[in-house]
Amino acid sequence: MKRFKTKTIVLAVIALVVLVAIIILASGKPGAEKKKDEAGPKPALTVTTAQPSEARLPIKLSANGSITAWQEAIIGSESNGLQLTDVRVNVGDVVRRGQVLATFSAISTQADVAQARANLMEAEANAADAKNNAERARTLESTGALSTQQINQYMTTEQTARAKAEAAKAMLAVQQVRLAQTQVLASDNGVISARNATVGAVVGAGTELFRLIRQGRLEWRAEVTSAELGRLATGTPALVTAANGTQVKGKVRMIAPTVDMQSRSALVYVDLLPAAADMPPARAGMFATGEFDLGMSTAVTVPQQAIVIRDGFSYVFRLNADNRVTQTKIQPGRRLADRIEVVTGIPADAVLVASGAGFLNDGDLVKVVPALPAEAASVTTAPVLPPTTAEQKANAVTTPARAVPAAK
User: Fold this and answer.
1) CB atoms < 10 A from the CB of 203, how many?
2) φ, ψ for residue 167, nearest 5 deg
3) What local confidence, expressed as pLDDT, does residue 215 receive?
């Protein structure tokens, strides 16, 4: 009986302890929840902020076009029916004005010159004889030994002989010109861009033998829309990038007076300066893109990391007074280093999320911390445990720390 009573008391004590524990747990849970509610929601991300700032940005006008020769000279044959015996230049050669580019066979032309010179000597001799006869006739005119008809005949013969001598002299000059034309000369300083001359060919007068880029000058013919044409003027500087990567400076020489009816664009002729010695040369026929320098202007800029691209549009996140963010659509403009111009969308005194903007959504709660200096952020690394063995020590590397967004 006593043993049964003791067992009953033990069970009662255990039941009492369990009941007290249940009451304590039940009374403690609402307090924890209340404490959690009083703490409020946790921020979605820890971010830094930045404000728009004014900066002086260059005004650029982009265009496309082709690089062409400033002027091309066609050098042709002036001789007719002569054989080409020597070609002294090739494509790409730099030539000077008056330099011999090719020669024709001059044997027949030299013979014609010799014949013309002989004809001139004969005509001059006849003219001298006629002159002497005319002078004697004039001396006898007062004596009456010769009739007036005879005297007039001697004077006419003198004039005819003189005219034949002049004709023979002109014929000699023609043959000498033909002899000079057996040498094809460069009409200007420049670079040979095409060659059609072949040794042994018999070509006619006017046949194109060479094509020359005058003075080696190139120009960029940019296509500019009619709406942007008024922003350009003669002398506007430009920077042209050729298809091979060469960058060449230039200056607007002329703007075309007409606009193409199909494309509604006009040509702008830009004289190009020689490229730097360490860059491949720009060549005629290359496609090139370029920018015209139209001056400077004041613009509102924001850090590049503050802009988020979503669905093809640009957005920034404005920080409100309650530390929540508002997604705002903007219109970006020019770029200067790591800052981008904002044309429309935000006021100049707005506070924007800088780092971490790409992880946010409209209405998120954030925690703002001061931005680290660029040098300090670049050298921040995670701690690395010392290697325990020689092999681990050789393979040990320093791992950069990464910012982990806080859980929502």
Assistant:
1) 20
2) -65, -40
3) 92
The answer to pTM > 0.70 is no
Q: What is the CATH number of domain 47-53+298-372?
A: 2.40.420.20
Residue 342 has pLDDT above 60, yes or no: yes
Query: b or e along 124-147 (b: 16 or more beta carbons within 10 Å of the residue's beta carbon)?
Result: bebbeebbeebeebeeeeeeeebe
Distances (CA, A) of 158 to 64, 97, 134: 73, 45, 6
**Measured in Å, how far apart are the chain's first and last C-alpha atoms?**
63
The pLDDT, as a whole number, for residue 395 is 41
Alpha helices in 62-196 (DSSP H): 107-139, 148-180
Question: Helix, strand, or coil here: 19?
Answer: helix
Encode pLDDT of 222-246 as tens digits.
999 998 998 999 999 999 999 988 9
Residue 146, pLDDT above cutoff 80: no
What does the alpha-carbon distance between residue 45 and residue 254 come to, in Å, rounded to a whole number? 57
Predicted confidence band of residue 254 (pLDDT cuts 50, 70, 90): very high
User: Which tokens hold the place of 166?
Assistant: 């002049």
Q: Which CATH number is 79-212 given?
A: 1.10.287.470
Q: CA Rg, the chain, in Å?
A: 48
CA nearest to 220, candidates 273, 294, 262: 273
Name the packing angle between helices 148-180 and 107-139 (round to 10°).
160
Contact 178, 109 (CB under 8 A): yes
Look up residue 286 and give its two tokens: 């290359």
Token pair listed for 404: 């982990």
pLDDT value at 405 more than 60: no
CATH number of 217-297: 2.40.30.170
DSSP 221: E
What confidence tens digit (pLDDT) does each residue in 7-38 have?
A: 677 777 777 777 777 777 666 544 444 444 45
The pLDDT > 70 percentage for the chain reads 85
Domain spans of the chain?
47-53+298-372, 79-212, 217-297
